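S.,

Sequence below, as promised.
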Amino acid sequence: MNRLGDRLRPCGPVIDARPAERLLDVLASQHALSPSEREALAPVFGASPYLAGLVRRDPARLAGLLDADPDVRLADILDRTRALAGVAPEAAAPGLRRLKAEAHLLTALADLGGVWDLDQVTGALARFADAALASALASAAGAEVAAGRLHPSADPGAGPVPGYFCIAMGKHGAFELNYSSDIDISIFFDPEVMPLAEGIEPQAFAVRLTHRLTELMQERTSDGYVFRIDLRLRPDPGSTPPAVSAAAALDYYESVGQNWERAAFIKARACAGDLPRARAFLGELEPFIWRRNLDFGAIADIHSIKRQIHIHKVDDRLSAKGADLKLGRGGIREIEFYVQTQQLILGGRQPALRSFRTLEALAALTEAGHVSPQARDDLTDAYHRLRSLEHRVQMLADEQTHRLPESDAERRRVAALSGHDRLRSFDAWVERILRSVNQRYGELFPGEEPLSSRFGSLIFTGVEDDPETLKTLSRMGFSQPAQVSQTIRSWHHGHIAATRSERGRELFTRLAPRLLEAAHAAGAPDAAFLRFGAFFSRLSSGVQLQSLFLAQPALFELIVEVMTFAPRLADTLARRPAALDAMLDPAFFGAIDPAEDRQALQRAVAGAGDFEAAMDTVRRQHREQAFRVGVQVMSGSAGAEAAGHAFAGLADACIEALAPAALAEAGRIGGVFEGQVAVVALGKCGSREMSAGSDLDLMTLHRAAEPDAVSSLKGWPAEVFYARFTQRLVAALSLPTSEGELYEVDMRLRPSGAKGPVAVAFPTFGAYYETEAETWEFMALTRARVVWSSDPAFAADVNAAIESALRQPRDPAALARDVREMRALIAQEKPASGLWDMKLAPGGLVDIEFAAQFLQLAHAPAGGPLRAGTADALEALAAAGLAGPVGPLLEAWTLQQNLTQMLRLALGDGDDPAVQPEAFRRKLARAGGARDFRSLAARLTRTRKGALEAFDRLVRP
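The prediction came back faster than expected:
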């Protein structure tokens, strides 16, 4: 026998183990549970209070289900349900409620345990609804017979009340019922056929019987309820009784029936009562549902079903948190309407398209050439996933809800029932499904929204520029409207890959006005259009991306703004459009966690096949994360400190991912070497003050296990082996590959600079800083930190050696003279380029860095604080009473770092912010905490003056 218990599999993690284990222990005391049954039931009981409650109230019910074949047990439940047809309502109702609980538990276990697929699950629920409704109607009719208002039926085939019948609508009608759904029923009757007692008015009787039927099905007791019934799909429900005569209904549909009602009847099915008359009624409705001839107005009205859903029903949110899986954007309703609207238009002449089941109809539309195989596959997959999610949401508390919980804790329950152990990955998975559906839905009946602008006409058809369109473009701020018009017309004509397909051109027709509006809104329309054009013209295909832009206008506007003001990011998108995928992650604008980047890179590199594949993998991951940091800076969601740490954390992650691969590559070629190696970051990476495009200042230190150790294959000594490692690491970090570039690497800050060995022996490092190092080298060493080491103990030794070198005794006066001489030499040989030279201007970043480094070196011999970061060092020195007031230095540091982050993204070296578009100057002013650009320049001058005075006061011989 195919026992249910033997076939169950765990649906996901156990998120609340304690109550699950308690319930399992109670069950085990009454019924032996196998280890596999416990393992499969624990996630269910840990996540679903409703299912746990069903089991707790009746443990024997679970035991019986586990011991039975699920298909056989379902058939038995249906038989017992039908057997209640001859029972009085007061006895039938509790019996039906208990059977519903049993069917519910069986269905949930078979669903969650992977025993039944979606079709079996929804079919089981719909079949039980049919059986329960039929028995409830028979029981209610029996009460009417007992009351003398109805004669017993003389025709068993006509049901308990000949002439009275129920039509299942919606998901119930299509055998697609969801777990805690109500059932949509339309009830009709033929007054000439019902065997009523003398003096009983047919309409009043039909209404009374309907009330009795719905009360029996809906009444809630401690045993629950059978089904909620929704009767609102009947003709004109606001002004008609709950049961409508068949003749009146037919007259209504033929005269004033609406297209949404035609759509509703696609899924209609006879389900209870006088089934022959129910089927005959549906047969008479076929000409209403499936019209052979549709004029333009009728087709447009069908299109409006979609538009009305968007206006009146759809929740525009696309986040998993609180997402409406049924009516929301990208939800089940969009899939159903995607299918039904096309059925309504095409089904009149193509009977093969008339299936009442969603996926069967979708397949038929594909077979007939109306839907692409890819669209069918996308929507079929999404439908299965959304319906399964819908069931799991409803299994939490047996509520007719279609929304994922807002609460993270409750959403974790749904995630666990869906097989996900991480909420973030679950949310991202859900959002990908919703986006996929919404994109496909957006492809249906395009072109109905206005394609002009509030500034005037935007016409790009024909071979000549439209005069009114040129005026519109001028009003929008484009300096060369004819060139813009010609470019867009060329795109319309399929001159680039993104618009080469008919679908691509159709989507671009809708996207073009939004692009022009977004370029105007960015404040620099010429730059926006130019950079978007560079990106758009490099796409290999434009259908999916344009659909995304149309579905998410806020995202599109942000992308255009980023392209406008951040050419570095725009160039990333132009060369690698896949970087855009990162913006689809709901966590894109959240706080950046370097540990997550590190783990993601390590996982990705672990799956790479070889060294070159690892290099490509790291570049892809780096591109996405660097793009994310850059967009956060441009959007104002990340300040200088957060951005500097994020860029440095990303560099750390790249080094940590590639260093083991480089070491393994050296070992592959030269053989195993017994020793340790560490990678030390200096400069901006060491101080965690990186910005877009920063290079990496690195050195590598190594220590052999034995003085005469050599590699196992080629006999390389330590200096050769670790030189090869260093060369491979530098190549991995700096060489361009098919995935682009990563960093420029500078090794010149190592002992002896370019003249010394590329990899430094650990004893040499200490000796060099004891006897040979110059002041500038000690200053650089204040920002040194170990990023990666093959041995944690060696990393600790290197950090200790760095600190030891920094704490060597030194003459503060001589140190101050060296620092001031060095600063004067820089000013002479590399003078500042102007006000916006954040690094070299008097009172700029170099002066502040020199002040912090001088103070650390001056006080380190006596135990003063050492910090790699400039601001951290100044704050620590001030807290220790070793620096005096550092407020002017910190204020100037923060301001210029904020501006540097923005300028490095937006401008090239030497570009003057003063000649940039007004919109960019406003953005730069906001980054600098100023009211406007002029105020920013004044604030910059003032803070630098204070920083320079502080430098002169602190760095004195």
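Residues 304-317 have pLDDT under 50 and may be disordered.

Coffee later?
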